[in-house]
Design goal:
575 residues; alpha/beta; Rossmann fold; Isoleucyl-tRNA Synthetase, Domain 1; four-stranded antiparallel beta sheet; 17 strands; elongated; binds zinc ion
Length: 575
């Protein structure tokens, strides 16, 4: 039986996530998962934070927090932001807390070593005699070899932006204590990517039907693969397994190596929590499982080449990625999202004023699927006002309030004699409609959003054409049949909406007097004459209220002004 294992890129526990991340890797995955579920598919959706590495230790030390506390704070904050957008994982964890993570990562190391894909290399690294530790690049200060800047960091120069090699820098200092470090020999393990490529990875990659942007992005990368170091000298991370360490001490797995193994260890954690500890294997080690990684484009080579190489190299029957929907970059109002420059949309303020489902819908409708795209406040306004408030919300309230007033708030009866005529009108004469799920399955979320609006437009054309409000005076039975037909369409709309706007879909479902979660309904597909009606006439409607509030021009002008003020205010303050 086909199963789906869906992942979103593990956010790094070192800062907030913004709307660009949401639309890049989380929202599309959430919509995909919700759609598959309504279609009866077996899906497991996992995520959690990536919590190791020197970028984290440097920042934690700077603010004087223990590493574990520092990452816990970001883990919580990031999850809270994802919750605001109703991103619903089956399991959420973190690479420093997931109970299986260290053992599973060590098992990857062990198997890769046993299978001949690791090599040991001796090299030189800077060592601080006072702190008695090897210094990762970020822990070295010195003079930039490119531009002469004296406060350059060992990994890159903040002035000229060049990547640096700390071993070639002059006047180096330990970032922690200021002592001049010395060069010492150290031993590290490297993943033999060229060997994996020649044995299996290359053939698999070339045979796989990638989306054009992925294939194009990888380009010649396969030819240029080099062995890649997978260990570092530091304390925060997963230790190299003792039985393979050859007596070496103080070495942990490189964060890039252990992070993606989180996709496996979180599944193991999930399985244990459900009481079926082997259930993770159905998703990870069954040939019928489809692994889908939702990521941003900066993660493509990693998810399409490096991690698959690791999965192959352990020879444990792990599935390889089936699809890697990778989005381009998402910007904000003519510039990049930047938390440090405060070019962002503060979440608290946003959700105090706007609706999460409206944001979800606009983010999908403007998603950076094939090219970079951006959040424009004016476009958000017109999307909410036209597509959501007018086309969907107004349609619902117009029909349901009229029924409330004139038909005792109950779904009006359908006269069997009227059914074929109204079926023909709405199914053939009011414009094209289609199945949004078909686009979702193809990872075309923009088209899915457009399709939803188009489907709602059909019902607008129908009620305008049939005008039940006028008909009620001349032919009440016919008016009832027309309104019954409109209600049927609204019930379809609620189901079509459910993956993209889960809260609003449920609200519409309840307004129609339907019980239970709309997400538990089977996916409707497209309506066909003779079989598409399912509502029971006489069903009492729920309380009818507006689905979407319109946004006025002044509000949008204030948002743009606030954005400019925040960005300008920060630029004048030194960092
Ligand atoms: Zn420089
Ligand atoms: Zn030192």
């Amino acid at each position: 039986m086909t199963r789906y294992l869906v992942t979103s890129a593990l956010p790094y526990a070192n800062g907030p996530i913004h709307f660009g991340h949401i639309t890049g890797a989380y929202l599309p995955a959430d919509v995909y998962v919700r759609t598959l579920r309504m279609q009866g598919e077996d899906v497991l959706y996992l995520c959690g934070t990536d919590e190791h590495g020197t970028a984290i230790t440097v920042n934690a030390e700077q603010e004087g927090s223990p590493y574990a506390e520092y990452v816990a704070r970001w883990r919580t904050e990031i999850k809270a932001a994802l919750d605001r957008f109703s991103i619903a994982f089956d399991h959420w964890s973190g690479t420093s807390i997931s109970p299986d993570h260290a053992a599973t990562s060590q098992e990857f190391f062990r198997r890769l070593d046993q299978n001949g894909y690791l090599e040991k290399r001796k090299g030189e690294q800077l060592y601080c005699p006072k702190d008695r530790m090897f210094l990762a690049d970020r822990y070295v200060l010195g003079t930039c070899t490119e531009c002469g800047y004296e406060q350059a960091r060992g990994n890159e120069c903040p002035r000229c932006g060049k990547e640096l090699d700390p071993l070639r820098m002059q006047n180096t200092r330990c970032k922690v204590c200021g002592t001049t470090p010395e060069k010492r020999a150290t031993l590290h393990w490297y993943l033999d990517l060229p060997k994996l490529r020649d044995e299996s990875l290359g053939a698999w990659f070339r045979a796989h039907p990638w989306k054009p942007n992925v294939a194009g992005f990888i380009g010649n990368l396969l030819d240029d693969l080099a062995p890649r170091p997978i260990t570092r000298d530091m304390s925060w991370g997963v230790p190299v397994p003792e039985d393979r360490s050859g007596g070496e001490k103080g070495k942990v797995l490189y964060v890039w190596f252990d992070a993606p193994i989180g996709y496996v260890s979180f599944a193991q954690e999930w399985a244990r929590a459900t009481g079926r500890p082997d259930a993770w294997k159905d998703y990870w080690q069954s040939p019928e499982s489809r692994l889908v990684h939702f990521i941003g484009k900066d993660n493509i080579s990693f998810h399409c080449v490096v991690f698959p190489a690791m999965l192959m190299g352990v020879r444990q029957g792990y599935v390889l990625p089936w699809q890697v929907p990778a989005n381009e970059f998402y910007n904000l109002q003519g510039g990049k999202f930047s938390t440090s420059d405060k070019r962002t949309i503060p979440l608290e303020e946003f959700f105090a004023r706007y609706d999460a489902d409206a944001a979800r819908f606009y983010l999908l409708a403007s998603a950076p699927e094939t090219a970079d795209s951006e959040w424009r406040w004016q476009d958000f306004q017109s999307c909410v006002n036209a597509s959501l408030a007018d086309t969907m919300g107004n349609l619902a309230t117009r029909v349901l309030r009229f029924i409330d007033k004139n038909f005792e708030g109950r779904i009006p009866p359908l006269d069997p004699d009227h059914a074929p005529g109204f079926d023909r009108t709405i199914l053939e004469e009011c414009g094209a409609f289609g199945d949004p799920a078909e686009h979702v399955r193809e990872f075309h979320f923009r088209r899915a959003a457009e399709q939803l609006v188009q489907n709602a437009t059909v019902a607008n054309v129908f009620v305008d054409r049939v005008a039940p409000w006028a008909l009620r005076k001349t032919d009440p039975a016919r008016a009832a049949s027309a309104l019954n037909t409109a209600c049927e369409w609204l019930a379809w709309l609620a189901r079509w909406m459910a993956p993209m706007m889960p809260t609003k879909a449920q609200a519409l479902w309840a307004m129609l007097g339907q019980t239970g979660p709309v997400a538990a309904q089977p996916w409707p597909g497209v309506p066909k004459s003779g079989t598409w009606r399912s509502l029971r006439a006489g069903t009492k409607l729920g309380e009818v209220s507006g689905l979407f509030a319109k946004i006025d021009d002044a509000t949008i002008a204030a948002e743009i002004e606030a954005l400019e003020r925040r960005a300008a205010g920060e630029a004048t303050t030194p960092r």
